[in-house]
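To the wet lab folks,

You asked to see what we're planning to order before we commit. Fair enough. Below is the target structure as tokens, and below that is the sequence we designed to fit it. If anything looks off to you, flag it before the synthesis order goes out.
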């Protein structure tokens, strides 16, 4: 959704109706996560994807139909054993889509939500998908305000409370309520689409490898910062556009920087005077990934220094060192792919093994 919002914002600002299909639920080996979106706009222009090609043709027709009749629909697509050529997911999974028309009249908050997402401001878009409430009704929830309604004051209040909790965690999914927001009922299904600010990637050491890691981090959707104590190396012209570059001692910068459970920290300095004080700070704060570059000998020496600094076995167990998966990487770009692969594998619980050597579902349970 983030990727196609600029186009949708242009259609919305021009008052051009468009059909928006959003993945609201998945099961088994579904190819896309909840929140993935596809839209059909003026002159049948298509942006986005909900399945990687399996059902896009059918969704295209649905999107055109909801624009024509103004009524939102909930559709489920799965693999058909009886007819493998029927519309469905050949991967064997199942996805449920909410397909709804979007105009300033039907969704007055859409423009404000898009502006917040573009500005990196946290916001949740709550949409009724099923039950005795107007399907397609939307409520936008920010940490300090709301816009729109799902039909009743009680439902709005319950969804607002939940949306703010989910937003703090960056969670997207369906929640169930009664028509007036009753917690013990599940007749109304509401899709909470959280647009938390992008996760951060902190890269320490302004070397060629850092430029490559910063580039792949930006590609993966991270907000990337490169930090190095040497101003001659910590210059923006050495890094991709949009990457923040900071000239500061790494441990001092990290000490004054917020991290959370989504943050990736890549230590590429492989110099004890930089990386040992830095890792003392990193291993004692929230982060999804902490990796450090260096040979196995460097790793052993660094670990001994960290033990001497008082770090516990549990803290040291968080360190991914030497950094990256074993891809046989040589160049900075290849090493960056290795690091990115390890980050993705750790995030989703992947083994890092070739898929030809594994069995079972390719896409693991969320």
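Sequence we intend to order:
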């Amino acid at each position: 959704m983030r990727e196609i919002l600029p186009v949708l914002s242009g259609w919305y600002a021009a008052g051009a109706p468009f059909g928006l299909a959003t993945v609201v639920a998945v099961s088994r080996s579904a190819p896309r996560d909840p929140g993935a979106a596809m839209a059909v706009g003026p002159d049948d222009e298509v942006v986005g994807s909900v399945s990687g090609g399996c059902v896009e043709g059918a969704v295209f027709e649905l999107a055109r139909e909801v624009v024509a009749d103004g009524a939102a629909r909930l559709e489920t697509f799965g693999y058909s054993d009886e007819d493998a050529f029927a519309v469905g997911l050949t991967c064997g999974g199942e996805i449920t889509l909410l397909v709804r028309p979007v105009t300033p009249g039907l969704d007055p908050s859409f423009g404000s939500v898009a502006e917040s997402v573009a500005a990196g401001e946290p916001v949740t878009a709550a949409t009724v998908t099923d039950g005795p409430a107007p399907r397609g009704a939307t409520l936008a929830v920010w940490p300090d305000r709301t816009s729109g309604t799902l039909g009743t004051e009680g439902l709005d209040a319950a969804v607002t409370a939940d949306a703010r909790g989910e937003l703090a965690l960056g969670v997207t999914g369906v929640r169930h309520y009664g028509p007036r927001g009753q917690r013990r009922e599940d007749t109304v299904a509401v899709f909470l689409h959280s647009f938390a600010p992008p996760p951060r990637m902190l890269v320490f050491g302004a070397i060629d490898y850092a430029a490559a890691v910063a580039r792949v981090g930006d590609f993966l959707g991270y907000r990337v910062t490169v930090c190095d104590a040497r101003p001659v190396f910590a210059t923006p012209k050495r890094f991709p556009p949009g990457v923040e570059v900071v000239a500061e001692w790494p441990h001092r910068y990290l000490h004054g920087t917020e991290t959370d459970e989504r943050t990736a920290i890549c230590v590429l300095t492989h110099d004890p005077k930089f990386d040992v004080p830095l890792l003392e700070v990193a291993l004692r704060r929230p982060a999804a990934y902490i990796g450090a570059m260096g040979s196995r000998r460097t790793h052993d020496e660094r670990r001994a220094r960290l033990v001497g600094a008082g770090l516990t076995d549990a803290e040291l167990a968080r360190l991914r060192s030497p950094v990256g998966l074993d891809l046989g990487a040589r160049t900075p770009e290849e090493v960056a792919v290795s690091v990115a692969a390890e980050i993705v594998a750790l995030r989703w619980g992947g083994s890092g093994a070739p898929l030809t050597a594994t069995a079972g579902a390719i896409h693991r349970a969320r």
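Structural context that might help your review: The longest strand covers residues 18-27. Residues 81-89 have pLDDT under 50 and may be disordered.

Thanks,
Computational group
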